[in-house]
Amino acid sequence: MRTYLTTIGLEVHVQLKTASKMFCTNSAEYFGAQPNSHVCPVCLGLPGALPVANEKAIESVTRFALALNCRINKQSKFDRKNYFYPDLPKGYQISQFDLPIGEQGWLELDGKKIGITRVHLEEDTGKLIHANVNGEKVSLIDFNRSGVPLMEIVTEPDIESPEEARSFSKLIHQIARYLEVSNADMEKAGMRFDANVSIRPRGATKLGNKVEIKNINSFRFLEKALAYEIGRQVEILESGGKIIQETRGWVESKNVTVSQRTKETSPDYRYFPEPDLPPLVFEQAQIEALKNSLPELPAEKSKRFEEEYSLDKKYVRILTEDSNVAQWYEKALSLYSKEKSKILANWVVEELLRIIHDKNLIINGVPIEPAGLIELLTILDKGEINQTTARRVLVRMFETGNLPSRIVNEENLAQLSKSEDLESVVEEIIRENQKAVKDFKNGKEASIGFLVGQIMSKTKGQANPKTAETLVRKKIYGNQSGS
Ligand code: ADP
Ligand code: MG
């Protein structure tokens, strides 16, 4: 078999987070609402209704394009993309054709630049629901999503594997959330992909015919669909066939892509400038101001976390995945001490985020403030509680919303460091483990560890292991000298 090179270009759709829709005043927060409750003459495309562009959406796309190192077109405009489909009542979608808001950008992914062809703004369509009503198959239309602002990002054919496509789309998702232009909520189809893919024999300079896989709504499906499609194309070429340029769909239940339409019948959208909306004009000063307002982006933040806090790549990746987590960590660190950046990272990643993940929460929805965790770590540092107890206290902080000092007091969790506190437990353990005591007396040093372990477990981890060990030795030697 020959070896083949893979070429992928992505078209990513991201729903913008705006209060109202793109061209009317209906709320864009339609998810889960009663069907057709968020509609008006504008988004229903009734005759004579006039669109008014949403300024926030334009600003969001401009900021996003700037974050992707695009050139912003000083003159931009909206265009009509004409086609018929039941979820598009106007008979055209307002989009952008030859003058998108942003062009010619790039994004670095694991040290490699992926070219960004364009970033433009358009409106979403309604949604068809195929249902069974009284035993009859019907198609229903919900127009709540009609006219919700949608940003489209098109990449150059620079992506070389399904894994890279997945990482790239995750980066887009991350940036959309960093910039707060979108929740990019995958469960609510807030982000969708069309993936274009072709293969060519190694050594060939001309790209192969591409196949477009439409409407993929998860990172995992994107990777799976592309891997399947590449396999399918290799098989065709290997058996002497030709790849026809076509649009295919990913059928998750069967794990295959299926043909939807071929190039011969591909639609001619007859784009023309939207006559009901004025062109968009940007001043250089406006562009500069938006550029300066961009927050620190994932790449810069990771680099800074690595350098400033000397953290491992793995921890940096987890802490900077969500800018709210990064912010939480930095707030906590500012209340603690920079020298303890690693200890804190460990607590946030291994304990806090694990609980958040298990409980299906988000960082901004937890009952624990950075100051609460730092109070806990300070009590731990002072030796008032030990590691095991500290972990338990953290769980109780989640459950009660109380501060750690209060939990330690009310639940009697302070470390048992004084001999008096441990005397009776130690005696009990010695009584119950005569064999280990004998082994120890006979020189088996490891038995002391076993005995201390028993004490720890009996005290649910509250015993100070050092005090416990000293006490065990004292008791055993005491007995010995007494015998
Ligand atoms: P079309 O005119 O069919 O929409 P475009 O040139 O606009 O095609 O490209 C659409 C997407 O397909 C872009 O993301 C682009 O990078 C990608 N693309 C273009 N040619 C190829 C190819 N031969 N193989 C893989 N992807 C491609
Ligand atoms: Mg195109």
From TrEMBL:
Query: Is Protein biosynthesis found in the keyword set?
Result: yes
Q: Where is the Asn/Gln amidotransferase domain?
A: 327-476
**One biological process GO term for this chain?**
translation
Check the record and name the Pfam families matching this protein: GatB_N, GatB_Yqey
| Broad enzyme group | ligase
What does the subunit section of this Swiss-Prot or TrEMBL entry state? Heterotrimer of A, B and C subunits.
Q: Which family is it part of?
A: Belongs to the GatB/GatE family. GatB subfamily.
PANTHER family, alphabetized: GLUTAMYL-TRNA GLN AMIDOTRANSFERASE SUBUNIT B MITOCHONDRIAL AND PROKARYOTIC PET112-RELATED (PTHR11659)
Q: How is this protein named in the record? A: Aspartyl/glutamyl-tRNA(Asn/Gln) amidotransferase subunit B
Phylogenetic lineage: Bacteria, Candidatus Woykeibacteriota
